[in-house]
Specification:
Length: about 550
């Protein structure tokens, strides 16, 4: 997204403008109790902060010659887990002694020990072993821990020499035939280091979710390499090489609040444009750079090196790394995690450069081209198969950007619409194909989760956004779009105009940063839009801005 890009209210929807809430319960008995869980997570945040302080004590030029790494702390980026299966979960760390200096870590392979336990005191070890932190993968460690029991919490840690990492909490997915009573899910996206603190992640950790879904823009590709969130953004130091993307991830992951959210629960992740470059589409960037493929491969490799994900057969092929994946939470929910970037057609009607623009439908014939794609043929077929075969009560499309139609001008006639071409509005034929697949599949209770546009939206998706919902134009899915963790947006008055002009949009709020918190049960899915009081204050409070629910078998938004 074009951060800070002025649009006069009519361009890129992500443009810059100049007390804890109640949370839905998990509905699941926990013998340790919610207070104990929160105490553990807050203690983890303190450990992460101490780790960051230890890292800050290392010279940015690296250890003195001959000094090795004695006395330095190797786990300054914390730990993380993700991609939970009923019998397995991926645990992650990276050996890095100074987050702002990769040379602080010697360029040799290191044997890192790991443990997974059934209790946070590590009295009952469920699995353990040794993994290699190799320099060719930035000394990152990915362990796919198997042989675990379904639907239960575990604790994990890493050790190198005498150093012990922070302790992370993770859980396996329920058994495939189980129907959990509830799933507590946090959803976040868009966390530009330059635009505020990561207080949203502190609140995510305190909410003690069972799963976190991050929907893209985990990093942004520019900004000074510094250990504190600045008072204002400075556009310097854009990332192009593998070393630069690694440094950017290290900077972001040094944040204690972000580490605390990773320590709280397993994550599932999607990427968007800023993991590589603003508004890129497949193998084309804004600059129309002939060397972009190499840049994208470097960015994809750095993404893998810093996230708790499986390679899914893509080892050694980072230029075409597959990100899209399915995650089942028993029979309660199936997550179809989509990749809206790697396989899409170039944005329509952008002249003289790559990237997005805003166009009137009547002036851009390419918008009507049925051959233009957002997901690509292979991913589309994969999604259709996953929807047809799903036995889940809720089918959740976790993807990057707003799907509901959002014209920037009033719609007296269909041809009057003006649309931003980087989102689904720039790919209307591909969107209709997705709607058709959803409708034909019969998949239960489709929910679309979105990010990217730095705005809370609640929307109802029908095949024809210009016609009233009815027997000939039924509701197909319900969409909830989250605001950003930090990245700024348009003024609220303009967002309200969008809601008033577009029938699919039922609610919009762009003046607050934060995250979404879901309580998904067999009979109902509830979501809270959680907005920070002040994104620039690391100690800020948070409040529920709006609450919605969707009943089993009844598509559409209910305001709670």
């Amino acid at each position: 997204m074009a951060e800070g890009m002025a649009d006069g209210g009519d361009g890129d929807p992500r443009r810059s403008d100049a007390g804890a809430a109640d949370h839905p319960g998990s509905g699941r008995a926990d013998p340790r109790g919610a207070d104990a869980r929160r105490a553990f997570l807050l203690a983890g945040a303190r450990v992460a902060a101490l780790a960051g302080a230890a890292a800050a004590g290392v010279s940015r030029a690296g250890p003195p010659a001959g000094a090795g790494t004695r006395g330095a702390y190797p786990f300054t980026l914390g730990v993380a887990s993700g991609a939970p299966l009923p019998n397995a979960v991926v645990i992650w760390t990276r050996v890095l002694y100074d987050p702002l200096n990769a040379a602080s870590t010697p360029p040799v392979a290191m044997a890192v020990r790991w443990e997974v336990a059934e209790d946070e005191a590590f009295r009952a070890i469920a699995a353990k072993g040794t993994a290699t932190a190799a320099p060719d993968l930035a000394h990152s460690v990915h362990v796919d821990v198997t042989g675990l029991a379904p639907g239960r919490w575990y604790w994990y840690r890493f050790m190198l020499g005498d150093a012990v990492s922070p302790v992370g909490r993770t859980r396996t997915a329920p058994a495939l035939d189980a129907m959990p009573a509830a799933l507590k899910l946090a959803v976040a996206s868009c966390q530009h280091w330059e635009f505020g603190s990561y207080a949203a992640h502190r609140h995510i950790a305190a909410a003690a979710p069972e799963l976190v879904a991050f929907l893209g823009d985990y990093i942004y590709e520019w900004g000074p390499y510094q250990s504190r969130h600045p008072a204002r953004a400075v556009r310097v130091d854009e990332s192009f090489t593998l070393a630069q993307y690694r440094a950017r991830y290290a900077q972001y992951k040094s944040d204690a609040d972000l580490q605390a959210a990773h320590h709280a629960a397993p994550w599932i992740l999607a990427w968007d444009d800023h993991e590589v470059a603003n508004d890129y589409a497949a193998d084309r960037d804004e600059r129309l750079d002939q060397g972009f493929a190499a840049r994208r491969a470097a960015a994809y490799q750095a993404w893998y090196e810093h996230q708790p994900v499986r390679l899914n057969g893509s080892a050694g092929r980072f230029g075409g790394l597959r990100m899209y994946e399915r995650h089942d939470w028993g029979r309660l929910a199936r997550f179809h995690v989509l990749d809206n970037r790697q396989y899409r057609s170039a944005q329509a009607c952008t002249v003289g450069r790559g990237g997005s623009s805003s166009v009137y439908r009547r002036d851009c014939a390419a918008l009507a081209d049925a051959g233009r794609t957002m997901l690509g043929a292979e991913q589309q077929q994969w999604l259709e198969r996953g929807l047809r075969e799903s036995k889940a009560r809720w089918n959740i499309l976790a993807q990057q950007t707003l799907m509901a139609q959002s014209s920037q001008v009033p719609l007296a006639r269909a041809a009057d619409g003006r649309y931003w071409t980087d989102g689904w509005d720039g790919y209307p034929a591909a969107r209709q194909k997705l709607y058709d697949a959803l409708q034909a599949s019969g998949a239960g209770n489709p929910l679309v989760l979105s990010g990217d546009v730095h705005t809370f939206y609640a929307a109802e998706l029908s095949r024809d956004a210009r016609r009233p919902v009815g027997p000939g134009n039924p509701l197909i899915a319900t969409e909830f779009c989250g605001t950003s963790v930090t990245s700024s947006s348009r003024p609220q008055a303009r967002t309200q105009q969008y809601v008033d002009m577009n029938a699919q949009l039922k609610y919009g709020r762009s003046d607050k940063r934060g995250y979404m918190l879901f309580d998904i049960r067999p009979e109902r899915a509830t979501v809270l839009f959680q907005g920070l009081d002040d994104v620039h204050n690391p100690a800020t409070g948070i409040a529920t801005l709006a609450s919605f629910s969707v009943a089993d078998g009844k598509k559409g938004v209910r305001f709670d």
